[in-house]
Amino acid sequence: MSIRLSGMVSGLDTDAIVKELVSAYSKKTESYEKDKTKLEWKQETWKDLNTKIYDLYSRTLGTLRFSSAYNKKTTTISDESKATITTSANAAKGTQSLEIHKVATSGYLTGSSLDFSWLDELDSKTNLRELGIVDETTINVQVGDGDIHAVTMSGDTTIGDLVKQFNEAGINANFDEENKRFFLTSTSTGKEHDFKLTGDSDALEKLGLLSGDSGKWIPWTKRDGTDVTNATLLTDLYDSSTGNGFLDTLPAKFQLNGQEVDKNTVFVSSFTVADLAQLFKGVGVNASFDEKNQKFVIENSDELFKNSNLDFLKGLGFTENDSAIKKGEAVKLNGSDAEIKLNGAIFKSNANSFNINGLSINIKETTAKADGTGYNEIKIVTDTDVDGIYNTIKDFFKEYNELINEMDSLYNADRAKDYEPLTDEEKEAMSEKEVEKWEEKIKKSLLRRDSTLSSISSVMKNAMLQTFTVNGVEMSLSVPFGIKTGNYFTTKDNEKSAFHIDGDPDDSTVASNENKLKKAIASDPDGVADFFSQLTSNLYKELDEKMKGTTLSSAFTVYNDKQLTSEMNQYNKQISKWEDYVSQQEEFWYSKFTAMEKALAQLQSSTSALSGLLGGL
Predict the structure, then answer these.
(1) What residues in the chain have per-residue pLDDT under 50?
(2) Using one digit for the tens of pLDDT, what is the confidence trace for 464-516?
(3) Contact between 186 and 171 (Cβ < 8 Å)
(4) Distance between CA atoms of 373 and 278, rounded to whole angstroms?
(5) Helical (H) or strand (E) element with 291
(6) Coil, strand or helix: which one is 535?
């Protein structure tokens, strides 16, 4: 670039003169830039609209064209405090009965207190030698029927190290420093996730993890193989290893806490496990049958063993040494499976949830009767989800209406003939709000009377007016469903193609009308599903045809995006061409003015020299 001498000798505003001389060329560049800006805005408008059309096509219509989208069921349960129900589309309609026999639990071991007076602190950093464990030893952890994991320890092992090993072995372990106890739990509910500790019993006792057995029910089972309950008859119990019945093993008479019991008088054919517990209570001993852990529990039984027939107690699975929890021992609650009876059939699960024939049943507690004689029934009623189907259809029309109204607004927009994108200088002369309002006026008019927009809009409107045959009856949105567009003369502009559902409480224009759609769903849900799947399938098909790729448009695009991109490239070339031409013209004129400034400078120098000579005469 040549050196520019801007009016240094002549005093002329060379920059202003040059700018004026090339202004015609600059105006041409500016015109192309404004056209390019409008094209960019047009692309943005189309992209936004195309996204909404594609979303309707792929997400909404892609789902509603299948009759399964309208196959919705709802289920009520007579006692939600016991269970909750979630319904799938394939759930059977009708009333079902549910009994909850057992709730799944996790294995839970509460360690005994490790309150040693000689220890100032007992925390995760405490070495096990402080608890009396000096030599290396092992405790085995087994979860369900899985592999046995060895937990090794010595005097240098800390409580924190031990907790870490328990966790790695597959159980949740924690040491409560405030209560000075270990707490061990299964990672999940159910028998298969229950755990047991074996190995060095001395180490287990020093760690507070040696649990006594609160009761037994060995070897008694029911003849049909199901779990024993409080309602089980003693005549149904037998020893699977010998085949002997429970009552067959009892002597004719025996002592129970010092009182004589006559088997022939007491143990009648209707005697249940709950009656057996009452027999113990009748002689001053608190007893109960634990259905969850399948054990007969006798509390405070020291005197009982001194004043009773030991053969009878041993027949229940007890001995003098394991009949009750000893003071200071850990307490172990066994993990158990959940069990329900649905329509007379027994189902078991290691969790408190069941998925049965389209129903997801989550149980909370048993329905056992207070007197232990059985279970209360819960009623489950499954029926068509009228509101769910109605809302699915209503949501579709809400989406369709918003889209078609926007398309009509863009097509019928006011002219913006005297509006052009603003230059930077023009924006500086206006407020930010004025600029925004100016540009919005242009953007709204860019698709006015657009033939592509008109075409896609017409396709959608025509598809919604079609009739379809369902069970031999010709149906449309209007008849029998009461879905139609508003009155042409009273409906707002650009909302004349929107549909209204008679009886829709959210639509003031038709809220007072009879809700024919809900009525149809309640009386013939399959017919409603058939009609609307045909309607949406047809609209899907029409949009699919419109969204096929061509030489002017990409696939899944309703406008000529390729053509607009090509036009944008042309504008970029034209702008670049005229920017180069303006630069060339500026250089040309600056070179002329620079030459003039040099000539004037030489003339001024010659004049000064001549004046000097004449002044010396």
Answers:
(1) 1, 3, 5, 213-214, 322-328, 617
(2) 999 999 999 999 999 999 999 999 889 999 999 999 999 999 999 999 999 99
(3) yes
(4) 13
(5) none
(6) helix
Beta-sheet strand order (sheet of 181-185): 172-176, 181-185, 108-110, 331-333
Is residue 84 a contact partner of residue 362, using CB atoms and an 8 Å limit? yes
- Sign of the alpha-carbon torsion through 525, 527, 530, 533: negative
Whole-number pLDDT of residue 324? 38
Residue 460, C-beta contacts closer than 8 angstroms, at least 6 positions apart: 400, 404, 407, 539, 542, 543
Burial environment of residue 551 by CB neighbours within 10 A (0 to 12, 13 to 18, 19 or more): exposed
String of b and e for 261-278 (b: at least 16 CB within 10 Å)? beeeeebeeebbbbbbbe
Distance CA 252, CA 76 (A): 53
Q: Where are the alpha helices (DSSP H) in 379-469?
A: 386-411, 424-428, 432-445, 451-464
Phi-psi region at 286: left, alpha or beta (left = phi > 0; alpha = psi -120 to 50): beta
Chain centre distance of CA 463: 34
Q: How many CA atoms does the CB half-sphere of 112 hold within 13 Å? A: 17
Q: Which two tokens stand for residue 262?
A: 């006559």
Count CB atoms within 10 A of the CB of residue 260: 9
Q: In angstroms, rounded to a whole number, what is the distance separating the alpha carbons of residues 86 and 249?
A: 48
For the CA atoms of the chain, what is the radius of gyration? 45
Residue 56 to residue 50: CA distance in whole angstroms = 10
Cis peptide before 505 (omega within 30 of 0): no
Residue whose entry in the numeric block shows the structure tokens 């490239």 = 569
Residue 304's pLDDT is what? 66
Task: Return the DSSP state at 126.
Answer: -
What pLDDT is stored for residue 198 in this prediction? 85
Handedness of CA 307, 311, 315, 317 (dihedral sign): positive
DSSP character at residue 558: S
CA distance 57 to 527: 23
For position 7, what pLDDT does the model report? 55
- Indicate the residue type of 273: V
Whole-number pLDDT of residue 510? 96
Q: What was the pLDDT predicted at 213?
A: 47
What pTM, to 2 d.p., does this model score? Answer: 0.66
How far is Cα 226 from Cα 229, in angstroms, rounded to an integer? 9
pLDDT of residue 112: 87
Within 172-237, residue ranges assigned H as helices are 201-206
> Quick check: 247 and 234 in contact, CB under 8 A?
yes
CB neighbour list of residue 357: distance below 8 Å, 6 or more residues apart: 90, 91, 92
Q: How far apart are CA 397 and CA 527, in angstroms?
A: 19
Please name the residues in contact with 270: beta carbons below 8 A apart, sequence gap of 6 or more. 233
Kindly state the tokens that stand for 248. 């067959």
Beta strands 353-356 and 359-363 are: antiparallel
Phi, psi (degrees; rounded to nearest 5) at 465: -100, 5
Tokens of 70: 């309208």
Rounded distance between C-alpha atoms, residue 389 and residue 394, angstroms: 9
Burial class (CB in 10 A: 0-12, 13-18, 19+), 153: buried
